[in-house]
Design a protein that fits this description.
Blueprint: H1 3-12, E1 16-20, E2 23-27, H2 33-42, H3 44-52, H4 61-77, H5 83-101, E3 125-127, E4 135-137, H6 142-158
Antiparallel strand pairs: 1-2, 3-4
Length: about 160
């Protein structure tokens, strides 16, 4: 199992793993403790690198403004868009960045949207592309879940980017 899979497994089980001054700070359910600790010891350096590279560092309003202006400039200058088009696409980039930075990991035993169980012919599948945590949903539950998350992102960005 690679470092990001180990981190994702811990978080999906309701635990937490992060860098601390003295090393790695770990909170993990007792049912996983022995197995996870052995995996962490075996890949400690890779896990530290993965944690260091995470996008969980909170951004403030200035960070989002800078990101927005950079994206708009790139879209206008390199993408050939009008400034209005570039601004609009940049807003979308900020929404996506907020969603990526505020993942919503869930337990794989039930759908995060409808709370229904995994059943034959009605499976719960993982959503999330960052490789460290997933939200588990029925495929048909993704759209309403995503729409709610998008509204959350827009509201947070309007209030300066914090959750």
């Amino acid at each position: 199992m690679n470092a990001t899979s180990i981190i994702g497994r811990i978080r999906a089980a309701g635990g937490d793993i992060r860098l601390a001054d003295e090393g790695i700070k770990l909170k993990v359910p007792a049912s996983l403790r022995d197995e996870v600790i052995a995996e962490i010891r075996a890949q400690k350096d890779a896990i530290r690198r993965a944690l260091k590279n995470e996008t969980d560092v909170p951004w403030d309003a200035d960070d989002y403004r800078t990101f927005h202006h950079e994206r708009a400039d790139i879209a206008e200058i390199e993408g050939g868009q009008t400034r209005a088009q570039a601004e609009a696409s940049s807003v979308e980039s900020c929404i996506i960045e907020w969603l990526n930075r505020h993942s919503e990991p869930s337990d794989a035993s039930c759908c995060a949207w409808c709370k229904g169980q995994d059943q034959s012919g009605h499976c719960i599948v993982p959503f999330g592309a960052d490789g460290r945590c997933h939200t588990w949903l029925h495929p048909e539950c993704w759209q309403p879940w995503h729409e709610r998350r998008r509204v959350m992102a827009i509201q947070a960005l309007e209030q300066g980017g914090s959750r």
